[in-house]
Amino acid sequence: MDQRPDKFLHHLFETAIDAVSAKNCLTEHLPPIPTGRTIVIGAGKAAAAMAKVLEQNWSDPLSGAVVVPYGHMTDCYAIDVMEAGHPVPDEAGQRAANHILQLVSQLTLDDLVIALISGGGSALLSLPAAGIALADKQQVNRALLRSGAAIAEINIVRQALSVIKGGRLAATAHPARVATLLVSDVAGDDPAVIASGPTIRPPTQDTTAVEILRKYEIEIPESIQQHLAKAIPDLSDGQEFDRDSVKIIARAEDALEAAAAEAERQGWEALILGSDIAGEAKDIAADHAHQALEAACFRDQRSRPLVLLSGGEVTVTLGGSHGGSNGDGGPNTEYLLALGLALNRDPKIWALACDTDGIDGNSQNAGATLTPYSVSGAIEMGLDPTGLLTAHRSTTFFETLGHTIVTGPTLTNVNDFRAIAICAGAH
């Protein structure tokens, strides 16, 4: 092994990010040029980077607009790039959604809409249904984010409260053809779930928004109660969606496969545990610690070093709408802290966990690295690792050690990237 395990794991993370960047995965999926106009719209953390690559590789006039979170700006020459709030919607997102909705209104059968959609797009395209105040929608959104609800459940609620999500943006654009290019940040890569599917024919739902809000004991403002009591039009049978195309251009599996290939190239054995792992961060960490320790038992000095790779989206439950700790970290650092405690200071196991968008939870970090000495080192510095895990203060743990990873916005988003290195002679 030519470099320290933590440096090697960081290199694998960078390799994974590069593999799912717009410059490396968008151009091969471009639709045919239409006989009419080309209108580009988009929303999400990768939307501006996708728009820039599209402009550089489109041989016909185009125009349009995309919206990205604050700090994710990329300069384009023909496509307007707007910024708005994420993960909680704000007025800038409402203005951007209105503008994008107007851009695709009154199009013809000959026109083409290219929709560049990625994770974060749901909050950015915030246009509440008539009668719902933005503040009420923000209140429900904050409570859902704190509740531990799965992203699919959160998106069902978001779609029910919106005039743009759940295929409604595409319905406005029809009869023009809509070509949607997606960077997937959801387990299972369901196009209807990514950014709440603004341009995707919505599936028939088995669970209603009302049932989800009740399940997580979310306080529902009066305006939202009144809206949800109404009959909401069903677009699942809309025939105009038949002309549309949908392509996922980047997903967690692509990032993991690129990292695995690079690890093998450098002489490591790579095993992908799964690309769509979901659940509580500490529970997933306990399972991965068990798998790592078990794998280590069968390795000696003659074994190649092994890296266990996984993706998906782990979550942290802070409490419902009536309280709970705010914490100071994110799912990836919470996963790592729980992993470190479960590994019990194994001298040959190192790990990294980062969000591929560069932002882990409410921190300014992408994630962190875990060394065999992190837990003992923190204790020597006066920290209580178990107490910090209970209080959801994983960032305090890793920042004190100097083990956080800061990338800034990566301009892509395929969710979590986790890697556990088991060096030769682990036992």
The total of beta strands comes to 12
State the domain count: 2
Q: What's the tally of helices?
A: 16
Order of helices and strands: HHEHEEHEHHHHEHHEHEHEHEEHHHEE
Mean pLDDT: 91
Report the CATH architecture of the largest domain: 3-Layer(aba) Sandwich
User: DSSP strand (E) fraction?
Assistant: 15-25%
> According to CATH, what is the class of the largest domain?
Alpha Beta
The fourth-level CATH homologous superfamily of the largest domain is: Glycerate kinase, MOFRL-like N-terminal domain
The outline comes out as globular
Uncertain runs: 320-324
Distance between the termini: 17 Å
What name does CATH use for the topology of the largest domain? Rossmann fold
Strand count, sense and barrel status of the largest sheet are: 6 strands, parallel
Structural class: alpha/beta
Structure in words:
With 427 residues, the protein is an alpha/beta fold. It folds into 2 domains: 5-17 and 252-422, glycerate kinase, domain 1; 22-250, Glycerate kinase, MOFRL-like N-terminal domain (Rossmann fold). Helices cover 36% and strands 19% of the residues. It contains 16 helices and 12 strands. A 6-stranded parallel beta sheet has the order 3-2-1-4-5-6, sandwiched between helices. A 6-stranded mixed beta sheet has the order 7-8-12-9-10-11, with helices on both faces. The longest helix is centred in the last third of the chain and has 17 residues, at 281-297. The chain is globular. It starts with a helix and ends in a 5-residue tail after the last strand. The model is unreliable at 320-324 (pLDDT under 50).
